[in-house]
Write a structure and sequence with these properties.
It comes from Mucilaginibacter gracilis. This is Conjugative transposon TraN protein. Keywords: Signal. InterPro entries: Conjug_transposon_TraN (IPR022298). The protein is an alpha+beta fold. It folds into 2 domains: 97 residues, Immunoglobulin-like (Sandwich); 143 residues, Sandwich (Immunoglobulin-like). The protein has 4 helices and 19 strands. β17 and β18 form a beta hairpin. The radius of gyration is 28 Å and the shape is elongated.
C-alpha cells in the first residue's frame, strides 16, 4: 500500500514541481517603464501622442480621460475630485505602441500640455549619445565646422539635374563626419525624404542574399528637414560612431527625394573611408 501511495505522489507531485521550475522572470528590456503624471480636478491636462490614439484604459473611474474629436492623437485628462488614490493609465496608439502612466492628483498642476513626440526624440537622442566622447551640442558644433574646411574627396552621383558629392570624411574623437554637397540644377525644389548609409557585400554570391547592415547616424546637420532650392546647393553633414569596413564590403550612401524619383546613390570602399582626416585640418 505504501508503495502505491508513493507511486501516486510521484506521479502527481513531480510534474507540478517541474512546472514550477519553468517559471520565468521578465527581462528588463520587456518591461515598459511608466511615465509619472499629475492631474487636477480644476484644470485639464492635454497629452499629445506621436500617432492616433486607439485605446485608453483607466485604472480608476475617478481618472477622467477623453479623446479629442478633431485631433485623434490627443487625449484630455482630469481628476473627478481631489485626493483620489494613485492609479494608472494605459494608452495604445495606431502604430501598436503601448504607453503606461502612473497617475496622481495635485492642487497645482505643473504643466497643462505634454508632447510625447518631443519626449521620445529627446530620449532617443540620449540613448544615441550615451557612452560617446562628444555630446549632442559638440557634435552639432563640429558638424558646422566641417562645412567650412577644405574638401578633399570627390565621390559623386548624378540624376535628372541633381548631383550628390562626398566632399570629405572628418574625425573628432570617436565620431566620423561625412560631408555631402547636393546640387540642384533644375528649377524644381528638391526636398530630402531621407539619407541612408549602409554596409553591404561587394559581390553577390549566386543564390545568396546580399547582406546589409544599416548605419544609424548620431546627427544630421543642419537638420532632419532639408530642401535644396532650384538652382542652388546645400551642404549636409552626417555624424556617425567611428567605423571601418572589410575589403569585401562597400559603404552605400543613398539620398531619396520626397514625392519624387530623383534619387541618388554612391558607394565607397574601405580605402576611401581610411582617407578620413581630423576636422581641424
Amino acid at each position: 500500500m505504501k508503495k502505491l501511495i508513493t507511486a501516486i505522489l510521484m506521479y502527481v507531485v513531480l510534474p507540478c514541481l517541474s512546472m514550477a521550475q519553468t517559471v520565468k522572470n521578465f527581462d528588463s528590456s520587456a518591461i515598459i517603464s511608466p511615465y509619472r503624471i499629475q492631474i487636477s480636478d480644476q484644470k485639464t491636462l492635454m497629452i499629445l501622442f506621436p500617432t492616433a490614439v486607439k485605446s485608453v484604459d483607466r485604472g480608476s473611474r475617478y481618472v477622467l480621460a477623453e479623446k479629442v474629436k478633431d485631433a485623434e492623437n490627443v487625449i484630455k485628462l482630469k481628476a473627478d475630485h481631489q485626493g483620489i488614490p494613485e492609479s494608472n493609465l494605459s494608452v495604445i496608439t495606431a502604430d501598436g505602441k503601448l504607453y503606461s502612466f502612473i497617475v496622481t492628483t495635485t492642487t497645482d498642476l505643473p504643466t497643462q500640455a505634454i508632447d510625447l513626440h518631443q519626449q521620445e526624440l529627446r530620449e532617443r537622442s540620449a540613448v544615441r549619445f550615451s557612452g560617446e566622447s562628444l555630446n549632442e551640442t559638440q557634435v552639432r558644433d563640429i558638424s558646422a565646422r566641417a562645412t567650412l574646411v577644405k574638401p578633399f574627396m570627390n565621390v559623386k552621383d548624378k540624376n535628372d539635374q541633381m548631383k550628390m558629392k562626398l566632399e570629405g570624411i572628418y574625425l573628432a574623437n570617436d565620431v566620423m563626419f561625412y560631408r555631402l554637397r547636393v546640387n540642384n540644377k533644375s528649377h524644381i525644389n528638391y526636398t530630402v525624404d531621407f539619407i541612408r548609409f549602409y554596409i553591404r557585400d561587394r559581390k553577390k554570391v549566386k543564390r545568396m542574399a546580399v547582406q546589409e547592415q544599416e548605419i544609424t547616424p548620431l546627427a544630421c546637420y543642419p537638420g532632419d528637414t532639408l530642401t535644396v532650392n532650384g538652382n542652388s546647393h546645400r551642404t549636409i553633414v552626417m555624424a556617425f560612431k567611428k567605423f571601418t569596413i572589410a575589403d569585401n564590403k562597400n559603404l552605400a550612401v543613398e539620398l531619396y527625394e520626397k514625392n519624387g524619383d530623383r534619387h541618388l546613390a554612391m558607394t565607397l570602399d574601405g580605402k576611401e573611408i581610411l582617407k578620413a582626416r581630423p576636422v581641424t585640418r
